[in-house]
Specification:
It contains one helix and three strands. By secondary structure, the chain is of the alpha+beta class. The chain has a domain of 48 residues. The longest helix has 14 residues.
Length: 74
């Protein structure tokens, strides 16, 4: 994992098309502005996980974290 330190108003570039700007810092919260083309999907982690789970359900796959071992009886 690459760790970067940025100040308010500074940017991070990902490739040629994505720019992330530090917009606001309040305590433990950081507000980011993300400029990316429409073809680049940008989601918060919890939303991304929900989308992935819905995709697995739509394909008839088991939810992540289930191993099919049954009810736990031995």
């Amino acid at each position: 994992m690459l760790l970067l330190t940025r100040k308010l108003g500074e940017n991070i570039r990902i490739g040629d098309d994505v720019k992330i700007t530090i917009v606001e810092v309040k305590g433990n919260h950081v507000k980011l502005g993300i400029d990316a083309p429409p073809s680049v999907k940008v989601h918060r982690e919890e939303i991304y996980e929900r989308i992935q789970e819905e995709n697995r359900r739509a394909q008839g796959l088991k939810p992540e974290g289930t191993d099919g071992a049954g009810s736990g009886s031995k």
